[in-house]
Write a structure and sequence with these properties.
The complex is a heterodimer of chains A (227) and B (114).
Chain A (H helix, E strand, L loop, with lengths): L1 E9 L2 H17 L2 E7 L5 H12 L5 E7 L4 H7 L5 E5 L8 H7 L10 E5 L16 E7 L6 H4 L1 H4 L4 E5 L11 H11 L4 E4 L8 H16 L8
Parallel strand pairs in A: 2-5, 2-6, 3-4, 3-5, 6-7, 7-8
Helix pairs in contact in A: 1-4
Chain B lengths: L2 H18 L4 E10 L6 H11 L9 E7 L2 E4 L5 E3 L15 E5 L3 E9 L1
Parallel strand pairs in B: 1-2
Antiparallel strand pairs in B: 1-6, 3-4, 3-5
Helix pairs in contact in B: 1-2
The chains are: A alpha/beta (227), B alpha+beta (114).
C-alpha cells in the first residue's frame, strides 16, 4: 500500500541555513561582504582591483575568488596587496554557501572591514545560491548587449547594484543604455546603477562612493537586510 | 549546470522523510519547480536515475509540477505572468514591477510503501 508523506521542504534549505551561519560569522567579525556576479569577461576582476586600489587606505579589504580552475584571477587580486583566497569549484558553475564557508578560515576576518567575493563567471546559476553576504552586485558590460536583463531576469532580480562596465567602447556597439537600465530597474525598483569603465576610470567615483557608503553604514551599525 | 548537487539534496531530503515514516520504499516524489528557479527537470531526472540506485528510492518516479513566473505591478497591484520580453504591467503600463512567484524549488511530498 502506498501512502503520501507531506514534506514541503525547500531543496536549497541546507544551503540557505549555511548561508545564514556564514552571515553570522561575518557579522561577529564586523565584515561587510559583497558578492560580485557577472558573465565571464564582464570585468569582475578588473572592478575588484580598481576598487581595492581606490579604497585600501580607507578600509581593510579581503577577497575570495571563485573560478572553475586556475588561480589567474586570484593572483591578479593578490597582486594589489590584499589577503585573497582562491576557491576552485572543480567544474561547479557557482559558489555556494559550503564553498564560501570553507574559505572563511583562511581569511583574517577580525582584521577586515570589507570582503569582496568574485563569483564564478556565469549569468544563470549563482543567483540561486545564497552565500551569506550583505550586498549583491551584478556587473554587466557593453559588448554583452543591452537585452541581457530581459533574457536573464533571475540573475538581475534581487541585486542591490548593477555596474555597467566597458562604457569606453559604447560607440562601437548598438547598446541602448536607457533600454538596458529600464530592464534592470523594472525588477529592482530603486537599485543603484553605475555605468563606468574600469579601463579609463570614467564613472568609477560613483561606484566607489556607493560602496564606501554601504561599508560605513554597516560599520556604524546600520547593517543591510540581504543575504 | 548544478543539477547533480541539487539532485543529491532532493535524495537526502526524501530519504530523511522516508526514514521518519518507516518506509520500505519510495515510489514517487512530488517536486515543485518555479520558472524562475534555475532548475532543468530533465537533468534532475537524469541524475536521479543514477544516484538513487541502491537506495530505497531506486526506481521512484519524479513528478514535476511547474509553476510559472509571476510579476506584481507596484503601481496598481495587478499580478501577471512573466512573458520574457516585456516586464511592464499589461493593465496600467507601469514598469515598476517585482517578482511575486515562480521561485519555488521544493519537495512537496513523497509516496512511500511501508
Amino acid at each position: 500500500m502506498t501512502t503520501r508523506v507531506s514534506v514541503v521542504e525547500d531543496i536549497l534549505s541546507a544551503n540557505d541555513k549555511l548561508a545564514a551561519s556564514n552571515r553570522a560569522r561575518l557579522d561577529a567579525a564586523g565584515v561587510f561582504a559583497i558578492n560580485l556576479m557577472a558573465s565571464p569577461g564582464a570585468g569582475k576582476t578588473s572592478l575588484i582591483t580598481r576598487t581595492v586600489e581606490a579604497l585600501k587606505d580607507e578600509f581593510r579589504i579581503g577577497a575570495v575568488d571563485g573560478d572553475i580552475a586556475t588561480t589567474l584571477d586570484a593572483d591578479r587580486i593578490a597582486a594589489v596587496g590584499i589577503p585573497t583566497v582562491q576557491i576552485n569549484t572543480g567544474g561547479e558553475c557557482h559558489l555556494d554557501a559550503v564553498m564560501f564557508q570553507s574559505a572563511l578560515p583562511s581569511l583574517p576576518l577580525d582584521d577586515l572591514d570589507l570582503l569582496i567575493i568574485e563569483n564564478v563567471g556565469n549569468l544563470i546559476c549563482p543567483a540561486s545560491f545564497k552565500l551569506g553576504v550583505h550586498a549583491s552586485v551584478l556587473i554587466a558590460s557593453v559588448p554583452e548587449g543591452d537585452d541581457k536583463p530581459y533574457k536573464y531576469p533571475v540573475m538581475y532580480r534581487g541585486v542591490d547594484a548593477v555596474v555597467l562596465n566597458k562604457m569606453d567602447v559604447l560607440a562601437a556597439f548598438d547598446f541602448d543604455v536607457d533600454y538596458f537600465r529600464q530592464g534592470v530597474e523594472v525588477l529592482n525598483p530603486g537599485l543603484a546603477f553605475f555605468p563606468l569603465s574600469c579601463k579609463t576610470g570614467e564613472g568609477l567615483d560613483a561606484w566607489l562612493a556607493w560602496l564606501r557608503n554601504e561599508v560605513r553604514k554597516y560599520v556604524s551599525g546600520d547593517s543591510g537586510a540581504h543575504s | 549546470m548544478h543539477e547533480l548537487s541539487i539532485t543529491q539534496s532532493v535524495l537526502e531530503i526524501a530519504l530523511r522523510h522516508a526514514e521518519q515514516a518507516h518506509a520500505a520504499r519510495i515510489t514517487q516524489l512530488n517536486l515543485v519547480i518555479g520558472e524562475l528557479s534555475t532548475i532543468v527537470d530533465d537533468s534532475v531526472q537524469f541524475y536521479w536515475d543514477i544516484i538513487s540506485r541502491g537506495t530505497i528510492a531506486e526506481g521512484a518516479v519524479l513528478h514535476f509540477e511547474r509553476v510559472p513566473g509571476v510579476l506584481r505591478c507596484l503601481n496598481c497591484g495587478h499580478t501577471f505572468p512573466l512573458n520574457g520580453e516585456d516586464f511592464s504591467c499589461p493593465r496600467c503600463g507601469d514598469r515598476q514591477v517585482i517578482t511575486a512567484g515562480g521561485d519555488d524549488f521544493r519537495l512537496d511530498s513523497i509516496e512511500i510503501e511501508t
